[in-house]
Amino acid sequence: MARKPTGESVLARAVRIFEAFTPEEPVLQVSEIARRTGLHLATASRLVAELAAHGLLARDDDRRVRIGVRLWELALRASPTATLRDTAMPFMEDVHAVVGHHVQLGVLDGDEVIFLERLSAPKGVINYTRIAGRLPLHASSSGLVLLAHGPADLRDRILAAPMQAYTANTITTSARLRRALADIRKQGFAWCPGHIHEEALGVAVPVRDARGTVVAALSVIVPNTAESRAVTGILMTAARGVTRSLPPSPLIH
Amino acid sequence: MARKPTGESVLARAVRIFEAFTPEEPVLQVSEIARRTGLHLATASRLVAELAAHGLLARDDDRRVRIGVRLWELALRASPTATLRDTAMPFMEDVHAVVGHHVQLGVLDGDEVIFLERLSAPKGVINYTRIAGRLPLHASSSGLVLLAHGPADLRDRILAAPMQAYTANTITTSARLRRALADIRKQGFAWCPGHIHEEALGVAVPVRDARGTVVAALSVIVPNTAESRAVTGILMTAARGVTRSLPPSPLIH
């Protein structure tokens, strides 16, 4: 990665430092942070020290660096999606109790779906999502639901862009995507057998607010077998419960 | 609030802007942000614009400002407490299914307990905690458990400091706190009837990692009645399950 011009703002550099941490590597040495961000070691070291002083990063005795609890706290306590998540949670637990496997709540962010919450069974089928994880809209059942009900310009953009194949079943052509979106609007759910992993079936339904606007996708990832047919009705029922329980004020994410 | 000297760093100002948002007021006008942070309107406006450009804040059409999904994502996806939370979650769901009411997971942060997760029943008894919410250690059952097993210097500091009373039952003297902590270490749980609210009973047990170190408190908030006796055994059993399921690497928060 090229070193950035020195005119870059402190905030931009701080964001790049936060971005250096991943679910797979939540703990980094300062030298590794410098390498990943393209910052000089002295600059990275000074910024890490300042971010740690504010609690946004945390350093242990071995000077290894992590995301700080304070950053987590600031992001969570006034989270714009907290109401949606808290309202959906009991209904997600109900689905989880009945279906098992993975239950997740996703919202649109940019050109992707981001997952706000996930309940998982220890022996659940393979699943690529995690909390705060993202997936492309064309690939996941949640993404397809959000795209089917999303703004027209977003749909045009995704239809025109290349679509990454995860398996032989992933939607990768604009013709097939257009048909899938029409089906989802007509049927009220997205049914994605083996689109991301051969053995997994993703099923998603829209969650609407009181005005009928789709604000989220509720989904399950279950084994890709015929017995999984029943999940659609369960999801639709749960999504209606979330809608009824959502406060009337508009949700923004 | 007094205006800060202009020498204050951009990061310090950004943190103060994040701190202006609360669970009760997650949406603010820029003028209100300026007022709460003590920043000049022009300074607040410029910083909000830059934070929004990075997705750390979000502005809607009415120029109202919120915490951005990107901040939430950066804090969550490499969260130092994600493993603890994800491991505890199925056991919290079990407790929630059996006990109902509120089930929560708290960890020590500074001189307070911070709640990483909470499952709530729609008709649960009154509860002051929320996700990313904090409570003083002397007042809450989770705090007492974490204090009982925490570092000696923390215990000395809390014992020497004034203790805020929430009800007539809150522990407010060092003699009573010292006795309570000894009881918790002996019995293996904290039992706090009406300590924060007259009608609520908080019960908490320690969650240990594989090496026996207490890394969290698992708690319920139930009605303050005799029938609630049974929760202690349920919590202790669930906490052992979390311990057994935690990965061997040390958890840091």
TrEMBL record, chains A, B:
Residues 8-69 form the HTH iclR-type domain. Residues 70-248 form the IclR-ED domain. InterPro entries: GAF-like_dom_sf, HTH_MetabolicPath_Reg, Tscrpt_reg_IclR_C, Tscrpt_reg_IclR_N, WH-like_DNA-bd_sf, WH_DNA-bd_sf. It comes from the Bacteria. Keywords: DNA-binding, Transcription, Transcription regulation. Coiled coil: none annotated. The keyword Transcription regulation applies. One of its GO terms (molecular function) is DNA binding. This is DNA-binding IclR family transcriptional regulator.
